[in-house]
Amino acid sequence: MIDIAEFESKYKKEIEDHKSVSELMKSREVTTTTFDESDLKAIQHNFYDLMYYRCRNAESCIKWLDENMNELPKITNELSSLTEPEWIGIPGMYGGFAYGLLERDGKPLLITDSWVRVVGGSGQSHEITPSDVTIVAEGYV
User: Terminus of the chain with fewer CB atoms < 10 Å: N or C?
Assistant: First the structure.
């Protein structure tokens, strides 16, 4: 499980330069790079940790994640050919995650936008690499 103190210490807030995952995917070139499966698995693990982190104050949300691990997104090379973000709604979160796989310097990068509909200012964007999860904007939704 994610170490919340370590996770929060990595926050990097850049709201003024924020572009949504949808904008980033529409403006990029579709990659033909095949990413290493171990990198994609590590990104997937970090994405799941982020989901748990965002749901940390909602017991029903955590319960849903625990009971539906097989339904959570699989991060695969096929995602890098999409021009629109994927979406997963999380019951109990009253929101969810838009996400897309991009390439940065030849490496896979998962971009996510997430929000909780009933909490103003809950929007957060993250960049997820095989080794890190970094918040790049928050408070915009």
Answer: N
